[in-house]
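Thread title: Can someone regenerate the structure for this chain?

I was given the following input by a collaborator and told the matching C-alpha cells would be attached. They weren't. Posting the sequence so someone can regenerate them.
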Amino acid sequence: MDYSILDFLCLIGAVGLFLYGMKVMSEGLQKAAGDRLRNILSAMTRNRFAGLLTGCAITALIQSSSASTVMVVSFVNAGLMSLGQSMAVIFGANVGTTFTAWIIALFGFKVNISSFLLPLIGLAVVLLLLNKSKTKNIGELLIGFCFLFMGLDMISNYVPDLQSNPEMFESLRNYASMGVKSILIFTLVGLVVTMVIQSSAATFAITLIMCSKGWITFDLACALVLGSNIGTTITPILASLSGNVAAKRASMGHLLFNLLGTVWCICVFIPFVNLNSWITEAIGQGDPNSLYRFVSELEMNNPEIYNHLFDNSLPAGHDVLRQLAAMQMSVSFGLSIFHTTFNIINVCVMIWLTNVYVKIVEWIIPSKNRDDEEFTLKFISGGLMNAAELNIAQAEKEISVYAERVGRMIDMGQTLIHTKEKSEDYNTLLSRIEKYEDISDRMELEIAHYLNRCAEGRLSNEGKLKIAAMLNIISEIESIADSCLGIGKIMNRKIQSGVEFNNEIYSNIDTMYTYVKSAMDMMIGHLNNIENVSGKLLIDSYNKEREINNYRNVLRGSNIENINAKHYEYQAGIYYMDIIGDLEKTGDYIINVVDTLHDNFRKAAK
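Best answer:
Regenerated them for you:
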C-alpha cells in the first residue's frame, strides 16, 4: 500500500475543511434559525423519548450516525439544543445507524450524501448573492454544511486504504485464540480502524473479509463491530474541536454512551454472542459460526482450492463459491443482529440515565469560566401555560436571569481594559464579550417573542401593562450589553492608534466601574424580587445614578486640565472620555429599568 507525504498533507487539509465547515455551519445556524428552528427542535425533543425517536429517524433517513451526531453537535454549539436534549437524540442515532447495516445486508445500497453537495453549493451561492439578509444566512448555513461533509468525505479518501488491503490484518489471526484477551484486542482493533477510516460500514466490510478468509471466528468479528461503535464517535469529537464547551460535552456524551455500553457487553460477551447466533439461525439465515469452520477445514484439507478461492481464480458457479456466499450472508445477518440487539439494549438501559450522563459530562468537561456556558433559556423554553399569570411569572424569572448574564459583561469589560493588549488573553476575552452580546440579542428576541404570545391571550389590564413594562426592560438590558461591547470597540481603536493610558486614567475608570457595577447589582436585586419592589431600594438606585452622573461631570471637567498639564496625551484623553461616557450611558440604561419598575411594580412595595 503506497501512502505518500502528499496524501498525509491532503488528510490534514481535509480535517481543516471539516472543522471550518463546522464553524461556518454553526454560525449560519445562529443567524438563520431565530426562534423558529429552536421551537421546532424543542418540540421534537420535548422529552427524552421524543428526542430518542428524533435521533433514530434522522439517522435512518440519512443513513449516517456520523452525519446526524455532527448536526446535533452543531445545534448544541449554536445554542439551539440543550445538552440534555442532545443526549437523547444521540442515543437514538445509535439505534438509527443499525438501519444502514440492515439496508446493506438486505438490498446492498447506501445513500451517498456527497453526491448532493455540489448542487447544494450552487444553490447556496445563489442565496449568498441575494440582498435579503435571511437568505444570505441560509446560504452561509448550506455552504458550511457542504464544506463539513466534503471534508468528511475527503478524510475517508485520504486515510490509508485499509479496506482494499485486508492482508494488513492477517497477522491478527495469531491473536485469535487467547480467550478474553482476544476479545479485548479485537475490540481495540475495531475502535482504531474505525477512527482511522472514519466509517463503521467500512470496518464492517473488513470484518466480513477477515471472516471469509478464516482468520477470525464470528465472536471476534462481533468484537470488531463492538469496537467500531466507539471508533465512530471520533467524527463528532472532531466536529466539537471548533465548538464551545457545550458542543464538547455533547460529543463526550456520545463517546461515554458507547464506551459504557461496550463495557457491559464485554462482561457478558460469550452468552450475548451465542444469543445472537441463535437468533440468526432462528430466522432461517444459518449458523454464522459455520463460515470460520468451513474455511478452516478447506485450508487444512484442500489447500489448492483455498488458494484458488482467494486469488479469485475459481470458476463462477463453483460449489465452494455458492456455499461461501450463503455463509457470508449468514455472518452479515449475524453481525447486523448483534449490532442492532446491542444498541437497542444499550438505549433501553441508558435512556433512563440521561440526566446522569449530563452531570457526568459536565464534571468531565467543566466550564473554566461561567461565560463558557452556552445560551439556553431556563424558564420559558417550553410552550405557554394555561394560566396567563404563570406565563408572566416565568417571563419575570427569565428577565432576572437575562440581567444577571448581561451583568457579567460589565466585569468582563473592566478586565479587558487591564489585560495586556494584543495578547491571547485579550483576544479571548474580547471574543467572549462579542459572544455574550450576540447571546444577549437572541435572548431579547426570544423573551420578547414569548411576551408577545402572552399578550395574545386573555389578560387583565394590569397583566397587559406588566408585559409592556417587561418589553421595555429587556430592551434596556440589551442596550447595557451593547454598551459593554462598545467598551471593547473603544479599546480596539485605542490599540490601533498606539495610545497608552497612565495609572491616573486606569484608577478613574476603575472608580467609575465601581459605581456602575453597584448600580447594576441593585437593578438585578430589584428584578429578582420584581413583584415586591422596595421603595427604599429604588431610592438607593436613583442616588447611585446621581453619583455616576456627578463623577462623569467631574472627570470631564478635569480631562482638559490634565491634558494641558501633560498628564497624558490629547488622544488618550479622547479614548478615556469615550469609555467614561459609555459607562455613564450604561448607568442611564440601568436607571431606565428602575424607572419602569417604579412606574409599574412599585404598588406592590412593602
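Residues 260 and 346 are 9 Å apart (CA to CA).
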